[in-house]
Amino acid sequence: MSISSGTEDGSHGGTRLNFYRRQQILSYSLILPAALGVLTLILYPLYQVVDISLREGRVMNFARIHDLPLGFGNYVRVLTDPQFWNSVLVSVIYVGGSIAISYAIGLGIALLLNERLPGNRILRTIVLIPWAVPGIVLGIMFLWILDSSYGVFNAMLRDLGILSADFPWFVDRRTALISVMVPTIWKSYPMITLTVLAALQSIPRELYEAANVDGATHIQKFRFITWAGIRGPSMLVLMISALGIFRDVDIVFGTTGGGPAHATETMSLYVYREAFNYFRMGTATAVGTVMIIVALMIGAIFTIFAQRSKFK
Amino acid sequence: MTLGRFISWAILVLVAIVTLFPFYWMVMTAIMPTDAILSRNPSLLPDLSRVSFAAFAEVFRARPFLSWTINSLIVSLGSSAISLVLATLAGYSLSRFASRPQQALGASLLISKLIPATLILIPLFIIYNNIGLFDTYIGLILANMTVGIPLATWLMKGFFDRIPRELEQAAMIDGATQLQALRIVILPLTKPGLAASGVYLILTSWSEFIFARTLISSPAKQVLTVGMQSFVGEQSVDWQLLMAAGTLSVVPAIILFVLLEPFLVSGMTKGALSAS
């Protein structure tokens, strides 16, 4: 930015300096409202979260929570709580299972949509609709469809002779978590479809023609052309979706509320219940701090995968 | 059409049917008489002579549905409008000025997406209780902004990146300030971007549940998603009423989505592809 002093026309250089200064001030003042808003509403609370997680004891008056003594008691309490480890296991199965199935479905549909079949555009809009529906409403819709006595799913299974009696999908310990994954997958696959489809469409057709000339098999073409083209975007959308499923509680809230007997209690829900059902802010924030570390790890893993695919 | 293409097409149609079935069944439950739906073997096709829309009217009588809707509109339009302005300015700044601190601020917006909402709620709840924002629309609007701004900012940056700098430089040579150039020359060209970000912001805040459930306590200020959830968990659920309410609650979102889908889809995919 050292421009003014060396020029022969001092006044002209002065205005140019002013121009750059003004630009710089402008650039910051444009981003500051958003950054300040997000920083005060997220990073400051984040600092508070860590601080509260290190405070031991209980106060009824939240204004005085920072007067409590410091210590790692909350972490000890959480890490020795079987309910916490249960929520970790539930989260792993819930996030991992939902994301794997969502990706399989999303990839399949994207490959089909890429073939430019009749009605392509309308089909694309239809498969995207679930994305626009609130998680709570979605949960309630599936609660009704999978209802044990009057649910249409049980009725269909009875008609087909698969099921002889009513089955309480959301109430039975063995099926509750899978039942919660169904609406979750239903909400997650559209964004994956969309991203993979866009990546597929950006792959040059000539690559396939060249591969045909060289006599490549379908599997080779998929591996070296298709997969190479969609790998990076896939990692990104998988990361965003996985983090979303890890964070959100809406669908679980709308269906099982964490039951039966904690079978569907994810880490997110565990934090919420500790904080707002039992008002144990210390242990809730301790679990939350662990969750942030997990989220950062998920982010790092996918970023590494995406970066590696760039150089291949 | 070859056999292979026909099979592909048939699979897609099947996927579309399965995808739409929950909506179909929700509407069916709302418009068919209770005995037709609450039966051991409900008919999958509607008996058109018995269709009734009474449940939709009943939703407004039995529950403060209108007040929920108005509250949802206040909160989602309020937070979307403010977020869109802030995200547009921030996105423009990220696109045109790329200094180190600038990039750091941009990255911090993205990292903020990693933090679970249930976790942000705890300090927000405590702070709001201390400064009097608990149980206010403003408090909820501010909380919703944290969800929308980060992604909307990067969406807008992607759109600004595709507009040549020469355009506003020309305007500035003609004597406009940078902000004037942004307003007069650039913004009209980013209408698709503003539409995409706007839809994204409205849909996100319209769907938001956990902030609204926790940061609002008085029933008069409750939003739709929280109202919907209050049906569940009672001893007996009036499914017909609930499905009518559910249908009403998703109609605005789906209309908005279908109308603006082209903008939204191209905007989000271009954002996703350029970021990867």
UniProtKB/TrEMBL annotation, chain A:
Q: Where is the ABC transmembrane type-1 domain?
A: 88-302
Pfam families recorded = BPD_transp_1
Provide one Gene Ontology biological process annotation: transmembrane transport
Q: Which domain of life is it from?
A: Bacteria
Q: Where in the cell is it found?
A: Cell membrane
Protease found in the keyword field: no
CDD domains linked to this entry: TM_PBP2
One cellular component term from this protein's GO annotations in UniProt = plasma membrane
InterPro entries assigned: MetI-like (IPR000515), MetI-like_sf (IPR035906)
Q: How does it sit in the membrane?
A: Multi-pass membrane protein
Residues crossing the lipid bilayer are 25-47, 88-113, 125-146, 176-203, 224-246, 286-306
The question of whether Cell membrane is a record keyword is answered with yes
Per UniProt, the keywords (alphabetical) are: Cell membrane, Membrane, Transmembrane, Transmembrane helix, Transport
Similarity-based family: Belongs to the binding-protein-dependent transport system permease family.
Name-wise, this protein is ABC transmembrane type-1 domain-containing protein
Q: Which organism is it from?
A: Martelella endophytica
UniProtKB/TrEMBL annotation, chain B:
InterPro entries, sorted: BP-dep_ABC_trans_perm (IPR050901), MetI-like (IPR000515), MetI-like_sf (IPR035906)
The protein's topology relative to the membrane is: Multi-pass membrane protein
What GO terms fall under cellular component here? plasma membrane
In terms of PROSITE patterns, this protein maps to:
ABC_TM1
Transmembrane intervals = 6-27, 72-92, 104-131, 137-160, 181-203, 239-260
Q: Which domain of life is it from?
A: Bacteria
Q: What is the lineage of its organism?
A: Bacteria, Pseudomonadati, Pseudomonadota, Alphaproteobacteria, Hyphomicrobiales
**Which UniProt keywords are given for this protein, alphabetically ordered?**
Cell membrane, Membrane, Transmembrane, Transmembrane helix, Transport
Q: Family assignment?
A: Belongs to the binding-protein-dependent transport system permease family.
Question: GO:BP terms for this protein?
Answer: transmembrane transport
Q: Which residues form the ABC transmembrane type-1 domain?
A: 69-260
Tell me where it resides: Cell membrane
Task: Identify the Pfam families for this entry.
Answer: BPD_transp_1 (PF00528)
The protein here is known as ABC transmembrane type-1 domain-containing protein
